[in-house]
Amino acid sequence: MQVGELTEAVRNRSVYRQFHWDNVGGQAGCRGRGSNLYFSAAGMLPGYADMPWRQVTAAANSLAADGAEGLAVSVQGCLPVSYEEARLREDMKQFAAEIKSNGMEPGDIHIQVSDQVNAAQYFVTAVGHGLRTETPESAGNEQGFTGTADFERNSAGSKGRLPGQERRLRPGQELVITRQIALAGTAALARLHEKELRRRFPFWLIDHAKEFERWMPTSGDARAAYRFGAAAVYPVAQGGIFNALWELAERADAGLEVDLRRIPVKQETIEICEYFDLNPYYLYSAGCLLIGTEQAEGLVAALADIGISAAVIGGVTDGNDRVICNGENRRFLDRPKQDELWRLGDGEMAAGKKNS
Asked: Where is 325: in which H helix or E strand?
């Protein structure tokens, strides 16, 4: 098997089927069935092996996209015998800061040392509490967007619906994307290959690219989208926007038509991806959400009012055709592929020769 996330076929055949699940479970974990607890897990992130605490943000993003508020995080670690205590202490300090910044509490923290690994391995599991939405007439809507659905903590006896329970696209809806694609992937490339890139590009371009990392958390963006009545929210992560489009359509058993020219991408991303011969549409994109909605223009305007850029990139169609349009050219969306950062790390790209 290849490094990174399991392929769709392997995941369905060898994971979901063993638990008698279909392929519409949570992106990184599974929601609490028949309860108001949601779970999300995260492991290795492409481009962030040296920053394992970023898994906390990845798990929090997934919870929020499922319509849940993060409560606690557990961290499981397996360290090689040679790992120094000072490094462990720094790791835990960073994990603690990341958990706090995502508004959660530390849960079970279990670290062990093994002679069966040659590098530190950390895995994160986050648990969240389901949120409910109410109509303005029933909730009063004192906060958030005027005249739209409101978010509140779900309490015993409440009758509001859980956003994650209706997290599927429907034909006729439009697709909205927040911020830009490949932000986290671009930041990782700029950080890991900084010296090399500074020999090729202006210093300001690399500095800007490294700062894209600050946009990785999307919990607040997801909550804002649900307040406005979004039908489906998906955190674009490993495999980039093309993998996210496929997976969201697959869950809904629906078709898509997307205008490639409308997908927002930073110039820094274009420049760095061209240098390494990488496809930005398959690059790690934490920091970006894909949203299905029946009120696309209103959602874009509402997000803009709170400082979140967004764009309408296409719509949901009947049938199973998933089409990418680029001017007059039309082609079918490919099945999910390996994230470009994993391919670069495997030494399969020309960049590996550049760095040698």
From this structure: strand 322-326
How far is CA 244 from each of CA 27, 82, 186, 238, rounded to the nearest angstrom?
10, 38, 17, 8
Q: Radius of gyration (Cα) for the chain, nearest Å?
A: 20
- In 93-135, DSSP assigns E strands to 105-114, 121-134
Q: Could you tell me where the beta strands, DSSP code E, fall in 81-204?
A: 105-114, 121-134, 150-153, 174-178
**Whole-number Å distance between alpha carbons of 9 and 115:** 33
Averaged pLDDT of the chain: 83
Instruction: Tell me whether strands 121-134 and 150-153 are parallel, antiparallel or unpaired.
Output: antiparallel
Dihedral angle at the C-alpha atoms of 233, 238, 240, 246, nearest 10 degrees?
Answer: -60
Contact 240, 280 (CB under 8 A): yes
The sign one gets for the Cα dihedral 40, 41, 47, 52 is: positive
Distance CA 285, CA 282 (A): 8
Q: Output phi, psi for 316, to 5 deg.
A: -100, 135
**CB–CB of 350/277 below 8 Å?**
yes
Pairing relation of β-strands 37-42 and 68-80? Answer: unpaired
pLDDT score of 329: 96
Closest by Cα among 330, 65, 318, 28 to 173: 318
pLDDT above 90 (res 325) = yes
Quick: pLDDT tens for 60-113. 999 999 999 999 999 999 999 999 898 999 999 999 999 999 999 998 888 989
Residue 217, token pair as written in the block: 């958390």
What pLDDT sits at residue 15? 61
Residues 6+ apart with CB under 8 A from 289: 65, 177, 178, 179, 218, 221, 222, 225, 233, 234, 235, 236
Confidence of residue 150 (pLDDT cuts 50, 70, 90): very low
Burial class (CB in 10 A: 0-12, 13-18, 19+), 156: exposed
d(CA 308, CA 235): 15
